[in-house]
Specification:
This protein is mainly beta. It is 13% helix and 49% strand.
Length: 416
């Protein structure tokens, strides 16, 4: 009898342990903070159990998850007023001029006496932003070229390298081929491409687009913005995506017109302010409330996107998975394109669709960010709450510091 009780106890412990380990894993993958709207009811799966959260007025609260009376996890609940924004899905041209001049790499060159020079080697590194030369501001490639060519000795460059600011010294050499002073560095000061305008706030005129940051195509570093703008774009053709080869939208950009000014490029997208004429054009479009990640459900949803001419249409998709606490903030939602018309036109998700807003149950929940290269019908989306940083007291929209469309084509680098 005692032996049977021991066997039963061991089996019971194994079953409970298996359940508990799985529940614990789910619990600790759950985010430590949730943004919820006022006076709403949420059904959330936490630690393998469905829990109902009823919110009241704005403020901050804490939910404690316990097991056998022992606190396991504390989750902060930020209760905020409901904010409405206007989802767009409009194809746009994007132009960014960097803050300073970005170094892509260094090279050697032959001097006037036949010797080989490589003045910037191991001094300036790929990804460095040259901000000043001998205290004088450098805004573009032309500024840098002019300063180097007219220099008569050592140059002290003020450089931003990641989060660090430093000064480095480089002495130009005179090139044999043209007799011009050079330092042997490849640089870029701007980039351009096509993407999708995700939303704007009708109260402030602020907009967000892309759902991920714009990286330099060579150094893979996030471009900092000195100035930038978004422009009207017309989709002229589509290269369909196939397994192993992402498709892309091709379009013409009206560079003579400006829809808005870009102020920020961060890992969750580009952000700025629309022009008054643009706001007037979109004034009658419907507003949608923002959904937090806790409100997103697996199942049917729609996207707004522009894959032909200037027409924005709604297409059916399926939310396959919601990662409540993703390691990459731009990959919180797994989606699959199910709309027959969109599949016929594009094969699924293609480059240029990044930023297309995702809607479900009358709310905007996110935006498309990436395509699965081996299955173009599927891809990732970003939570709209990660893309929209909201000051709820002042009703100002901007970007949180979190990044679809690689800039295409990149501006050609210039050798100095």
């Amino acid at each position: 009898m005692l032996r049977k009780l021991k066997i039963f106890a061991v089996l019971f412990f194994c079953v409970i342990s298996g359940y508990t380990i799985g529940s614990f894993a789910h619990l600790f993958r759950f985010p430590g903070e949730l943004r919820l709207t006022e006076y709403s009811t949420y059904n959330v799966n936490i630690g393998g159990r469905s829990r109902t959260i009823q919110t009241g007025s704005r403020g901050t609260d804490e939910m404690v998850i316990e097991a056998f009376g022992v606190p396991l996890r504390r989750i902060t609940l930020d209760v905020v007023p409901e904010v409405e924004i206007v989802p767009l899905g409009v194809a746009i041209g994007v132009r960014i001029n960097t803050d300073g001049v970005m170094v892509l790499g260094t090279q050697s060159f032959r001097g006037e006496c036949g010797e080989m020079f490589r003045p910037a080697h191991d001094v300036l590194l790929g990804g460095d932003l040259i901000l000043r030369a001998n205290g004088i501001e450098i805004n573009n490639k032309e500024d840098l070229t002019r300063f180097i060519e007219t220099s008569d000795g050592e140059i002290i460059f003020s450089v931003r390298r990641g989060e660090e600011r430093l000064e480095v010294a480089v002495t130009p050499g005179i090139a044999e081929k043209d007799g011009v002073r050079r330092i042997g560095v490849w640089v870029r000061d701007s980039t351009k491409g096509i993407g999708t305008l995700t939303f704007f706030n009708p109260e402030t005129g602020a907009f967000g687009a892309l759902g991920h940051g714009i990286l330099d195509v060579d150094t893979k570093t996030l471009l900092t913005v000195r100035s930038g703008r978004i422009m009207p774009s017309t989709v002229t053709s589509v290269t369909r995506g196939v397994r192993g080869v992402p498709g892309e939208l091709e379009g013409s950009v009206d560079t003579s017109a400006t829809l808005g000014t870009i102020y920020t490029n961060c890992t969750t997208g580009i952000f700025g302010e629309l022009e008054p004429e643009t706001l007037a054009r979109y004034a009658d479009l419907p507003r949608f409330p923002i959904a937090g990640r806790a409100q997103i459900q697996e199942g049917p949803a729609t996207i707004l996107t522009n894959v032909s001419g200037a027409d924005v249409k709604s297409y059916e998709i399926e939310i396959e998975n919601v990662h409540m606490n993703p390691s990459d903030e731009t990959k919180g939602i797994v989606i699959r394109i199910t709309d027959p018309e969109l599949l016929r036109q594009t094969g699924g998700i293609v480059q240029g669709m990044s930023g297309s807003p995702i809607l479900q149950n009358g709310r905007i929940i996110g935006a498309i960010t990436h395509v699965f290269v081996q299955d173009p019908t599927r891809g990732y989306g970003i939570f709209i709450e990660n893309m929209v940083g909201v000051d709820y007291h002042n009703q100002v929209l901007g970007g949180s510091v979190l990044g679809g469309v690689a800039p295409e084509p990149p501006c050609p680098p210039s050798g100095q």
